[in-house]
Amino acid sequence: MTTTEPEALRARAEALHLHGLIAHWPEVATQTWLPPLLAWEEQERSCRSLERRLKTAHIGRFKPLCDFDWSWPKRCDRAAIDALMALDFLTDASNIVFVGPNGIGKSTLAQNIAHQTLIAGHTVLFTSAGQMLGDLAALDSDSALRRRLRHYARPQLLVIDEVGYLAYSNRHADLMFELISRRYQNKSTIVTTNRPFAEWREIEQPDVWKIGRAGVRHPGSPT
């Protein structure tokens, strides 16, 4: 809800960085065209911001939850998914892990949460574990690696899809550990995997997820 009180109008103009308008504020403060002008500018910037964040998030096409088959998988906790869609987990930087076999909708659920996060005004990055780790491992200088780690650490929500589908080298495991360490208790991360926690030692170094699991919210293991 917007207000037309002079102080509120000026605050909105300052938030929009309309310096020319503010410089002539005594002349424009009572003009009838000012409130709709500010509203138009706010709406346009909000739309442009969403378009930009959608483009950089790389979520891809996905099935909305209204079309999701909740009868498969049988053990998917719908109430937990609905709670996650409220995005409260972002407040305390909790993490989410979707565990289950291939083809049951783990990525779809993660994409829906990621999209809801974008709509709420947050930044998101969606990537597969293989793509992300390959990207990081290919860098041959410390400065380039630090910059790229900041790229993955920066979004308010990072979705790492398909963790455990391939075995990782020690180098990949170290990079995963470094990234999760940077995000832990600062930003939320969603992971999808086809491997239960008991098997993660087989695909990564033992301590890779020791940090991340402390803040995990587990919406059920679909089977």
UniProtKB/TrEMBL annotation:
Pfam families, sorted: IstB_IS21 (PF01695)
Signal peptide: none
GO aspect biological process, one term: DNA replication
Superkingdom per UniProt: Bacteria
Swiss-Prot/TrEMBL keywords: ATP-binding, Nucleotide-binding
An annotated Gene Ontology molecular function: ATP binding
Protein name listed in UniProt: ATP-binding protein
Organism listed in the record: Acidiphilium acidophilum (Thiobacillus acidophilus)
Organismal lineage: Bacteria, Pseudomonadati, Pseudomonadota, Alphaproteobacteria, Acetobacterales
